[in-house]
Design a protein that fits this description.
The chain is built from 3 helices and 12 strands. The N and C termini lie far apart (51 Å). The protein is of the alpha+beta class. It has a 5-stranded mixed β-sheet with strand order 1-12-11-6-7, with helices on one face. The chain has a 5-stranded antiparallel β-sheet with strand order 2-3-4-10-8. A two-stranded antiparallel ribbon has the order 5-9. 17% of the residues lie in helices and 29% in strands.
Amino acid sequence: MLTKEQRESRKEYERKMENLMKPGQEGEADETSTAFSKTLKEKAGLTVDPKNIVSVGSPITSGKYSFTVNSWSVSKKSPGYKLPKGLNMNEWGQQLDKEGNITNEYSYVVLNMVVENMTDQPVTEHLWGYMRLQAFDMGEYISEVRYLGEEIPREYGHDSYVESFEAGETKTYPVVFLMPDEIVNDQELYLEINTSGGNPQPEDPEFAVKRFIILN
């Protein structure tokens, strides 16, 4: 028999998942989202409600948050932001010159993002760890958030993915990813957001928590 604390914990989890699984946008999905949903099914085997897919410039909600990618860019040139203390940019195979420009077969992909806490309560979560920059054929490469473009960079480490918001607060950041050129040049990119913090599978009801922003 479950204890009172365990019952309350289960109820809280169920409430959280119910909130996370609400559609990411109101109204009908547009043609671009519908077409991309079909492409995800064909190329990645993912069954995704078109309402959980948006294009650049459109917001999408997930649980407590609204996410918008306003613009994005690809370049070998350094984005120009100060690097977090403790971040070694050569650790994942990229080669950089003294100005921070990439000299081998990788590129910076910078997403200019707006994130809003839609609740009336302060929240703190490992928000930037919920995101992956994806393409249909990634091989073994995983593109996580590398760092944020900040005037005063945070120290690199597990807690560098943590973000705190006041009630109703909105924050805007350049979000820096790294991606092999062969993927950037040959495939369509999209941002995958999973604010559950878990790894739901396509046959799992929790899979509906994932949101997708097409970089178009």
